[in-house]
Structure formats: structure tokens, C-alpha cells
Design a protein that fits this description.
Strand content: 25-35%
Helix content: 10-25%
Order of helices and strands: EEHEEEHH
Distance between the termini: 37 Å
Strand order of the largest sheet: 2-1-3
Number of strands: 5
Length: about 100
Amino acid sequence: MASERERFYECEVKRRRVRAKGGYEPFWKVKPVAEALIDADTEFRCKDCGGAVKLFKRATAGAVAPYIEHKLRVDSEYCPSGMYFLQATDGRAARASANPVR
């Protein structure tokens, strides 16, 4: 039996914008993973909990589209979109990652 994996096709990517007073400031923007790869973005995080994610880019024809999954199981256990959170039956409350990507 194949193990289940969580797959997210949207994430937050770190971008920069010009400040009104000059210089740049970082901000997080929600994008589809495939679009983020085309735009050559390099910093990703979960759009729901802000936790660290692993990127899976598929280059073979007929394969699953590029996706991300949580690096840490504890993030998945308390992320509102996480596979382990959705499977939990103990009534836990969703929360942000204890180690968010900044």
C-alpha cells in the first residue's frame, strides 16, 4: 500500500517591493507552485501556517504537477490544510507554525 502524502499546489513566495521612503521591503505573496517555479522564486512557505515546506518539481511528462509538502510533521499536525490535522480526531485547534519561515 502506498503511503499518503500531503500535496499543496499553492504556497507563499518571498518577494520584494519598493518602499515609499526608498529601498526595498520583503513581503509574502500567494502563488501556484508551478507559476512560482516559472518566475524563478526561491523562498517558499506554507500559505496557511507559515511553516517550512519541501518543493517537489516534476519534470517528466504525465507526472503530478509541481507541489510542496510540510518539512516538519508538527506543522502538518496543526496546519488547517495539513494532512495530519485533517485526519486527527482529538479536536485539536489549528495554529501557526512554531518555527515560521521569515
